[in-house]
Amino acid sequence: VLCNLGTRNEPGVDKKSKEQKLEYLHQAHDLAVKMGRSYGLAIIEFNLACIYYAAENLPDATIFLEKCVKIADENEYLQIMSFGRGLLGRIAIEQGTKQQAYSYLKQALEFSTISNFQTTSCEVVEVIAELCISNNQRDEAVVLLSCVFDKLPDNSNSRTLPALQTTEEQLAQLKQDLGEERYERSFQKGR
Questions:
Q1: Which of 36, 111, 133, 163 is 20 to 30 Å apart from 170, CA to CA?
Q2: What is the DSSP letter of 90?
């Protein structure tokens, strides 16, 4: 229950509510440790990382993600192995460590594909598109985003990996960067 209270995302949440969410998650974390619940602990570590990521606190987000991935690897929780590395990849892009991002994202895609988690795979492909954008490979990013565009949940609360921009916002920026004709050619290539 504490974990669920700590992860509910509602629009317009104030600072005090965010602090309350963190408090609930830390309480859930302590309980999961005491009870020896590795799966629950991995999920809580990921949820804490997401909250810190959304607050742009990348050092704390990374600490919790690394713990999450370690637990997931030890217990072969494939989906957590995938989305934990997906968010680590997104952070690595933001920090400019592109080789590390590539490594995380390659692993994340492998785990989500092996375990047949289509939505997670699509979200990882979306992050790979962000890596393409950071490498000035905008046409490739459009192709990737157009492949997954209809498969991603519209509601950001239904997504596993937190994002600072929606797919629509990314595509709109790419359309502006590339121009209408070039953008459409790349978008159709991905369909």
A1: 111
A2: H
To the nearest 10 degrees (0 to 180), the angle between helices 138-148 and 180-190 is 50
Contact 72, 80 (CB under 8 A): yes
- For 131-181, the pLDDT digits (tens) are 999 999 999 999 999 999 888 877 666 778 888 788 889 999 999 999 999
| DSSP letter string, 91-122 | HHHHTT-HHHHHHHHHHHHHHHHHTT-HHHHH
Query: How do the residues of the chain divide into helix, strand and coil, expressed in percent and rounded to 5?
Result: 80, 0, 20
Using 50, 70 and 90 to split pLDDT, how confident is the model at 4? low
What is the torsion angle, in degrees rounded to the nearest 10, for the CA atoms of residue 64, residue 167, residue 76 and residue 4? Answer: 60
DSSP assigned state of 157:
G
